[in-house]
Predict the structure.
Amino acid sequence: MLTRRIIPCLDIKDGRTVKGTNFVQLRDAGDPVELAIRYCDEGADELVFLDITATTEKRKTLAKLVRDIATHINIPFTVGGGINTAEDVTMLLENGADKISVNTSAVRNPSLVDELAKNFGSQCVVVAIDAKIIDDTWKVVTHGGRTPTHLLVTDWAKEITNRGAGEILLTSMENDGTKNGFAVELTKEISNAVHIPVIASGGAGTMEHFATVFQNGDADAALAASIFHFGEIAIPDLKRYLQQQNISVRI
């Protein structure tokens, strides 16, 4: 049976962990190193670090902070934000990242996915897709949700898979921060359209939401932020609940 993963996400702005709703109204959620240590101790399967303003501010991801976190954890660590070249990836891997996540840069230059998969292996390349309903259709948005595109989410998911992405981080902007549940139908559509793992992101508010996106959305992993940051759901409790629902998780 496929073991599902629980992944906390550290959205980083100005060196601090932040969390908002629908990608705006950001509030402070704590020190990223302290949170990373806590999640590692609590049994998180992986950790994702997203420097959410690196692209819009046209700068590189915070390498020192990545290194500070990596030295304190022993679980897979994915880093994204401001990655545009193979050199950027090398720098982050040298500072402790296990995988990298590209989003805007991949939309702007799809061949970057091919290049990174070739140079570092597909297992290292996560492509993040931020999805928003535009004209009644799920479309890709970039620059931290600020820039709409004409790309259909499913078409883009298939393209990046063909180009060598090893995993998709799928975030629904409509659900992000609402705590009303994941975009289950979208997640299922993407999961069934590609042969690589899909991480569901955006909207987690209850333990039931996780069970639903695994059982009905065919997600391989589920990512959340504020409910973990602010202690609304503890990862050990969540995993015990999922076990009770006959969902395989690592305890």
